[in-house]
């Protein structure tokens, strides 16, 4: 499973990329808004993320009608070859994705909350489809079930669309996504941090250190 980082924060992206496990980044208007004032403009922020990640970086179109989404996408696509345009799952979004995919501009259909929406995204030619599982859990729907359904549907046909499990809230979401065989999980920085920690690892390190300390004088490295 590929791991994307779900943030627009440069420090978080740098720290995580150093670990060598980050394949891409997803941003959204909320995440980008949090970084306000740190860059001259949005292109500067997205360009910097692309330079660090050197993999797919999703940036979301704000426009609502197809023509405007396409113009916005064309501008974003000039920033870097790594840019992927996030397009919300609407009628106009689908129209825009179809045209952008013909024009070889990469797209990620976002705000997907049902397997049928994912099916339509794949039919339109989206490179990625992003079901938001955490937000479904929030309203007492089993978010992860739509990942199971989408996997089944996509495996029935020859779609090239990759599923990005989005709106991840905790490490169990990542574990479940990997067990289902999702293509990608886009993970917030704090969840990634929790994934790499285990109390027994820390206890183990302390114990090894203490044991070796007792005989340190007798060994040369
Ligand atoms: C994904 O692409 C979105 O940016 C993100 O996962 C949304 O997560 P949230 O529901 O925690 O805002």
TrEMBL record:
Where in the cell?
Cytoplasm
Recall the GO molecular function terms of this protein's record.
Answer: aldehyde-lyase activity; transaldolase activity
Please name the pathway.
Answer: Carbohydrate degradation; pentose phosphate pathway; D-glyceraldehyde 3-phosphate and beta-D-fructose 6-phosphate from D-ribose 5-phosphate and D-xylulose 5-phosphate (non-oxidative stage): step 2/3
InterPro entries, per the entry: Aldolase_TIM, TAL/FSA, Transaldolase_3B, Transaldolase_3B/F6P_aldolase, Transaldolase_AS, TSA/FSA_arc/bac
Q: Which residues form a coiled coil?
A: none
Q: What is its main location?
A: cytoplasm
Q: Which domain of life is it from?
A: Archaea
Supply the EC number(s).
Answer: 2.2.1.2
Reactions that this protein is recorded to catalyse: D-sedoheptulose 7-phosphate + D-glyceraldehyde 3-phosphate = D-erythrose 4-phosphate + beta-D-fructose 6-phosphate
A matching Pfam family: TAL_FSA
The kind of enzyme this is, by top-level EC class, is transferase
Q: Name one GO cellular component term.
A: cytoplasm
Instruction: Give the GO biological process terms.
Output: carbohydrate metabolic process; pentose-phosphate shunt
The active site annotation covers: 86
Listed A to Z, the keywords are: Cytoplasm, Pentose shunt, Schiff base, Transferase
Q: What is the role of this chain?
A: Transaldolase is important for the balance of metabolites in the pentose-phosphate pathway.
The family note in this entry says: Belongs to the transaldolase family. Type 3B subfamily.
The entry's protein name is: Probable transaldolase
- Name the source organism: Candidatus Altarchaeum hamiconexum
